[in-house]
Specification:
With 371 residues, this protein is an alpha/beta fold. The protein has a single domain (9-370), classed as TIM Barrel (Alpha-Beta Barrel), CATH 3.20.20.210. The protein has helices at 7-15, 31-41, 46-53, 125-138, 154-162, 164-173, 176-200, 223-243, 260-265, 283-290, 305-308, 311-325, 345-355, 360-370; strands at residues 57-58, 63-64, 70-71, 77-78, 84-90, 93-100, 123-124, 142-148, 206-210, 247-251, 270-273, 295-300, 331-335. β3 (70-71) and β4 (77-78) form a beta hairpin. It starts with 6 loop residues before the first helix and ends with a helix.
């Protein structure tokens, strides 16, 4: 009889703060980093790479079926929120940059009623259901729905619409405007949540929300502004997630230690990123203070250790994270953000090999390649 845990069982035990046969693992990377990893491994499909690395979580997405995305003569496009973007190349890949904030000239929150907001039915949850069913035919994985925080959460989508500088000024000078924009964005996310959970709710393990509210040295906004203007919208979304029987995972880069009590208070179940290179982000202190209140997700440094460390240093860093954050359960190992294209594939493999998730197929291929 095979008593090995399935990936989903392993994650669910971690979410229940119980130790498992090994620490569950997750994976996120840019397309360019994934392409480099596939070439290194000699594997042609993304799913096959995830299987070989032993990744326990999958991030399927709904299909967009709304109005045709507007493409402009200069190569830019207007996304479903009305934000105009373009692609900016860098060595090895490209990133998106905003060209136009459609609510930049808004001077009265009453004007938001006339704005052409996206509708939840522009996305098709049936495609998501079909993807999960195909996965379940092979192995039941934990399912994270990241569309509630990618390409931006409530605060971020709102400043995409308004412009970040103006949005931050508004929070001081005319707070009714940012509050009203975030309320509209939250309405959208709750509408999408209700649609998707009606179709796949029994197979979703956490809703991945986000908002970067800190930089590497401290908060982007004061605690009071966050509590007054941003937190109420996340609390409303989190409450609906819990009512629908699911968990909330919240992502923020940076020095978020001072926000952790309040994030717990508004219903955060899983904290993502854990950027321990940021000020005040001590993994041992955070585990001791919040390990019985939060599950932790991420932690592996994508700025320095993964791209620039040796394989042995990556293994040492992985062991440290598992020893501290995995004690007593409640930890899912993964990168702090998308793994970037400058990360050696050998270091990615070293992380998962040390975690004990790497399959014999990959370990054998890795041994052959380095002889």
């Amino acid at each position: 009889m095979n008593n090995e845990l399935t990936p989903r069982e392993r994650v669910l035990l971690a979410l229940a703060h119980q130790e498992t046969d090994r620490t569950p693992v997750d994976f996120i990377a840019t397309q360019e980093a994934m392409a480099r990893l596939k070439k290194h491994l000699g594997i042609g499909e993304d799913e096959a790479v995830l299987t070989h690395l032993g990744i326990d979580v999958r991030h399927p997405r709904q299909s967009y079926i709304g109005p045709v995305i507007s493409r402009h003569h200069d190569g830019s496009w207007t996304d479903p929120w009305g934000v105009r973007r373009h692609s900016v190349p860098y060595e090895g890949g490209a990133y998106e940059e905003i060209l136009r904030h459609p609510l930049a000239d808004l001077d009265d929150p009453g004007g938001l009623a006339e704005y052409p907001w996206p509708r939840p039915d522009w996305w098709d949850p049936s495609a998501l259901r079909d993807r999960i069913q195909r996965l379940d035919q092979e192995t039941p994985y934990a399912i994270a729905l990241e569309e509630f925080g990618d390409p931006g959460g409530i605060f971020e989508i709102s400043w995409y619409l308004r412009g970040m500088e103006q949005f931050l000024i508004d929070m001081i000078e005319q707070p009714a405007i940012p509050y009203a924009i975030m309320s509209r964005v939250t309405d959208f996310y709750i509408g999408m949540l209700e649609r998707v959970m009606a179709v796949v709710g029994d197979r979703v393990d956490f809703i991945w929300t986000s908002d970067d509210i800190a930089h590497q040295q401290g908060p982007l906004v004061s605690k009071q502004l966050w509590k007054d203007l941003i937190a109420p919208h996340h609390e409303r979304l989190n409450k609906r997630v819990h009512q629908l029987g699911c968990r909330v995972m919240y992502h923020s880069c940076g020095a978020v230690r001072s926000f952790l009590p309040e994030l717990v208070g508004i219903g955060t179940d899983v904290l993502d990123v854990l950027q321990f290179s940021a000020a005040g982000m001590d993994p041992l202190e955070i585990k001791e203070s919040f390990g019985n209140k939060l599950v932790f997700h991420g932690g592996m440094d994508v700025q320095s250790l993964l791209p620039f460390g040796t394989e042995q240093e990556v293994r040492q860093g992985t062991r440290k994270l598992i020893r501290i954050l995995g004690k007593g359960g409640g930890y899912i190992l993964g990168p702090t953000h998308n793994i970037q294209v400058d990360t050696p594939p050998e270091n990615i493999i070293a992380m998962y090999a040390e975690a004990g998730s790497l399959t014999p197929t990959v370990q054998s291929a890795r041994t052959i390649r380095t002889r």
